[in-house]
Design brief:
By secondary structure, the protein is mainly α. It folds into 3 domains: 74 residues, 434 Repressor (Amino-terminal Domain) (Orthogonal Bundle); 184 residues, no CATH class; 81 residues, no CATH class. It has a 4-stranded mixed sheet, sandwiched between helices. A hairpin with a 6-residue loop joins strand 2 and strand 3.
């Protein structure tokens, strides 16, 4: 018989209520009677580990670790988390985005628990750098680059976009901000962040291009340094619906990401006396490891190209990206069928990141957490532990 586990009954009830479900609905999904569900929520009995996995992942769509918390989490609404996103855009957020927001909050709590509520990094960017919505974009970009200690020569010498993304991600985690990747299943959103004075974190949409993921990371970093949560969206006109500081913040975050990754002084030298065309834009994009859209936007801001030309090229590139995604997915599906091809563990590891994996396994090796807790922190079943461990060797 499976062993009963010390799940928190208050969290079980909270998960059901926040999911808008009646006990009868949960009972039906679990193949149990209502009395059993209510008994779990009173603490008179408890689900088995296998039953809890089903409750967490299939019924309530929440990370399993939440159900062991000492008390139900105090969750902010999307409106509270993303104060600079217009109400009408929040209303259009998919259920997947709501789930990822819940997951991100759970990951934030995981980080606090794993680190005994103290961010262990020597230099924590959230503590050391703070900016106001009226900050100068150039000053902000310069200070952040100096703080992260990655100069342009280092950026130019990365061999490809994969190394660029990995390097930026690792650098931010070394400075106290974790970056996680997930499939958003929503092309409208490229990334989001949750501010926290000790454990801020960023989520990026793994379905977008690597260059877009890099831009999203720094858009979200700007939000964090301004003391807010935020979203990086592909909806171009949403800023028109914002007012006051919310409008200033979104404009600043976009401008910061562009200026940080492609500093104006260096860019001005490189575009002097060259023709702005497909080839030159592509070469510059590969120089800085950003999208062609970022490069062309900077050219538009300098009146080096017309607005209609910019719009036409951006639409063309986005159509090309969609076709590439379809082809890339086909190749991935084929590769996964071959021995030695990409695996579930490699993908899961890429989503969690090297820093988080190392943190969780180090706590396990030091006997600070059990194997069941290890599985919870990784969001996998116990039987998958050895596979996850193999990717960090």
């Amino acid at each position: 018989m499976s062993e009963k586990i010390p799940v928190n009954p208050d969290v079980l009830e909270w998960a059901r209520l926040t999911s808008g479900m009646q006990p009868s609905e949960v009972a039906h999904k679990m193949g149990k009677d209502i009395a059993t569900i209510l008994s779990w929520e009173r603490g008179d009995s408890a689900p088995t580990y296998i039953q809890l996995e089903k409750l967490a992942y299939q019924v309530y769509k929440r990370p399993l670790a939440l159900f062991f918390f000492p008390e139900p989490p105090q969750e902010k609404t999307p409106q509270q988390s993303f104060r600079t996103l217009p109400e009408h855009e929040i209303e259009k957020m998919s259920s997947r985005m709501y789930y990822l927001l819940k997951q991100a909050r759970a990951m934030q709590i995981n980080l606090a628990e794993l680190n005994d509520d103290i961010n262990p990094v020597e230099h924590n960017i959230v503590h050391d750098l703070k900016f106001h919505p009226d900050a100068s974009v150039k000053t902000m970009a310069t200070q952040v680059r100096e703080y992260l200690k990655i100069d342009l020569n280092t950026q130019f010498n990365w061999k490809d976009i994969d190394e660029a993304l990995k390097s930026w991600r690792n650098n931010l985690e070394e400075h106290g901000t974790f970056v996680f990747k997930e499939k958003f299943n929503d092309e409208s959103f490229s990334g989001f962040c949750l501010y926290h004075e000790r454990f801020p974190l960023i989520y990026v949409n793994n379905s977008t291009s690597k260059s877009r993921q890099i831009f999203s990371i720094f858009h979200e970093l700007a939000h964090i340094l301004l003391g807010t949560g935020g979203v990086d969206t592909r909806i171009d006109d949403y800023i028109d619906y914002l007012e006051g500081d919310a409008r200033k913040i979104e404009i600043l975050c976009n401008s910061f990401a562009g200026e940080f990754l492609v500093p104006d002084p260096d860019f001005s030298q490189r575009i002097a006396n060259i023709t702005i065309d497909d080839l030159s834009v592509q070469n510059l994009a590969e120089r800085y490891w950003v999208s062609r859209e970022v490069i062309l936007r900077k050219c538009l801001d300098r009146s080096l190209v017309r607005g209609d030309y910019y719009t036409e090229k951006v639409e063309q590139w986005r159509d090309e990206d969609k076709k590439r995604k379809v082809e890339a997915k086909r190749k991935r599906d084929e590769a996964e069928k071959k021995p030695g091809g990409p695996t579930y563990y490699v993908t899961k590891g890429a989503y969690l990141g090297k820093g988080y994996l190392s943190l969780v396994f180090s706590r396990y090796y030091k006997k600070k957490i059990s194997i069941n807790q290890l599985a919870d922190y990784l969001g996998v079943k116990v039987k998958s532990i050895s596979g996850m461990e193999s990717i960090i060797q």
